[in-house]
Every structure is written in C-alpha cells, then in structure tokens.
Design brief:
Elements: H1 2-15, H2 23-34, E1 38-42, H3 49-60, E2 64-68, H4 75-79, E3 80-85, E4 90-95, E5 102-106, H5 113-116, H6 120-125, E6 127-130, E7 133-136, E8 142-147, H7 160-163, E9 166-170, H8 177-186, H9 202-211, H10 219-234, E10 238-240, H11 244-260, H12 268-279, E11 284-285, H13 287-291, H14 296-306
Parallel strand pairs: 1-8, 1-9, 2-5, 5-8
Antiparallel strand pairs: 3-4, 6-7, 10-11
Helix pairs in contact: 1-2, 2-11, 10-11, 10-12, 11-12, 12-14
Length: 323
C-alpha cells in the first residue's frame, strides 16, 4: 500500500499547486478515481470546481473533454450522432464528448432531465448506445460534474437515479485567508494550471484501481457499513434512504481511503469520514423535516452518533492477521 500512498501524494501535491488549501477535497476526488467512481462537485461559483477537474486530468494525462450543460443541450450533443455520408451512402457515427477518460459536466443541473439522463448508461455501464449500436467508453472513465446549489432559476434538479450514480459529493468552500493570498500571488503572472505536468501514466492508475481491492475489511466493519445504511432507510426525517449502491460505494471508498493512508485494512474512522460524502446526496429528506431546516448532512451526523461503532472482536483486531 506504500506505492498507492506515495503515488497519491505526488498527484495531490501536483494538484495543490493549483487548488490551494483544499487537501481533503482533493483526496476525496482521488479516492473516487481509485474506485472508478464519479464525483459531484457542488459549491458556489468561483471556488475552483472546474479548475480542480482540469488539474486532475492534467496530472493523470487522461483524455479530457468538457460539456457546458445548457437548457437547449440535446442528448445527441453528449453521446454523439450518426450522420449520413453521401459519398459512401452509409451512416457514420460522430462521437460526442462523452467518449473521454475524464468528462467535465459543467453546471450539469442546467440541462433538461432528458439530456441529464443521457449520462445514466455511461456512468453505470461505461458504454453508450446510439441508434441501436453499443460503444464502449475508454478506460478509465470518470465523470466530474459541477453544480451550483444556490441558483435555482433556469436549473433542473438532478434525477434521483443520476444522483445515486455519483460515488461522492464534494464541497470545496472558500479558501482560508492565507490560502487566498497564496492563490493571488501564484496567479500574478499566469494561471498555475498552464504549467501543470503529468505525474503518472494511465496504466499506473489502472493498476492502482486493481490494488485497492486487496484492502481488507473485517466482518465487523461490513456490519457497521450495513448498520449505517439501514439507519438511513428507517430515520424519521428520511423519505427515501440510501440504496445498495450506497453500501457498495461506502465499502469501496473505505478501501481506497485506507490505501491512501498507507494501510491494507479499514478502520471505523474511515467509514465515519466517508459517510457524509458517500451517503448524504442519496437521501431524500421529508418535506416536514426540510421545513425545520434539517439537511441530509445533519441526518448522517445524527446516524453516526446513534449507531454503535463496532469493537474489536476478542482475540482479533481489524488488521489482517499476520500469517
């Protein structure tokens, strides 16, 4: 796991030359990359959501494409379209921007639900179907979507099926005072992203994605994950709780987070740190609870305080027993 830890440190340090003071957000995006998962970057304008996506793509040397979601965007503008060639008298497929390795879906909630749904197959099955023909997407394929949570005019809420396909929802927030001074000084002559270099190869990333699957989870940790997810389904302020996809997401992200920390085993603290980013966006809060200003994040916090943390089994630790 030391290889994963050192490699992720190099990527994070490279990205932090552009995104200053947001190490937790950078680590969460890198966790999603290791898990082959998609990320919803939700925050107010100007906090660096788009810049973070570009910095990650440049650090990995991945094929990067961007879609600016607007109300008049069509599904074919995302997936591609078949065009009739008069010379060959055949239809030729013109690929859309979805055929990328890292896809930036900028302001995804500005497109209509019909256009938003064009990403469902791509996000879950890593393929798109156009005119009855199925096209496999390149590996890795990661969607980094941005969304402004405070602007509702001219926007369309993301369907629950699409929200559930995002592995993590990440908030950046405003930088601290000293960090913002650093940002100002670094951009005095040019934007630092222009000088950003590739840190690892795509082959290395694919190898790391396989290695994290070897991280050990004790049965007690598995039971803790299921207890947290089950609690979201029975909470009095929740209309619809997290799905089985949420359980799998918490399981896999915990493996990646432990690997980033240099461990080959998961501890309860990993689950606690990831529960909010993994589960909160999957919950539908009751209308009566929303009136009382109850949010999904406060519900997750309440569940973490209520569900008992598993203790070490007698004669056994969470670490993999030495053989």
């Amino acid at each position: 796991m030391e290889q994963i830890k050192s490699t992720v440190e190099r990527i994070a340090a490279n990205v932090e030359t552009v995104i200053v003071g947001k190490r937790r957000a950078v680590d969460l995006v890198l966790v999603a990359l290791l898990c082959r998962g998609h990320v919803l970057l939700e925050d107010v304008p100007g906090t660096g959501k788009t810049t973070l996506a570009k910095a990650i793509a440049r650090s990995l040397g991945c094929m990067f494409k961007r879609i600016q979601f607007t109300p008049d965007l069509l599904p074919s503008d995302v997936t591609g379209v078949s065009i009739y060639n008069q010379q060959t008298h055949t239809f030729e497929f013109r690929a859309g921007p979805v055929l990328a390795q890292i896809l930036l879906a900028d302001e995804i909630n500005r497109a209509t639900p019909k256009t938003q749904s064009s990403l469902l197959e791509a996000m879950e099955e890593r393929q798109v179907t156009v005119d009855g023909e199925t096209i496999q997407l390149p590996q890795p394929f990661i969607v980094l979507a941005t969304q402004n949570p405070i602007e509702y005019e001219g926007t369309f809420p993301l369907p629950e099926a699409q929200l559930d396909r995002f592995l993590l929802r990440v908030h950046l927030g405003y930088p601290e005072r000293n960090d913002e001074i650093t940002i100002l000084r670094r951009q005095r002559q040019q934007h630092p992203i222009d000088a950003l270099e590739q840190v690892i190869s795509i082959e290395t990333l694919l190898e790391l994605q396989q290695q994290i699957k070897e991280v050990y989870l004790d049965e007690l940790i598995e039971e803790y994950i299921l207890a947290l997810v089950t609690a979201t389904r029975s909470h009095e302020d929740v209309y619809l709780g997290a799905s089985t996809r949420g359980s799998l997401a918490l399981y896999r992200t915990a493996q990646a987070y432990a690997a980033i920390a240099g461990r080959d085993y998961v501890i309860p603290d990993d689950i606690k740190l990831l529960a909010g980013p993994v589960l909160a966006h999957r919950l539908i809060v009751n209308p009566s609870a929303r009136i009382r200003s109850v949010t999904a994040e406060t519900i997750i916090s309440d569940i973490l305080n209520t569900v008992a943390v598993p203790g070490a089994r007698a004669g056994r630790r969470f670490e993999r027993a030495a053989s």
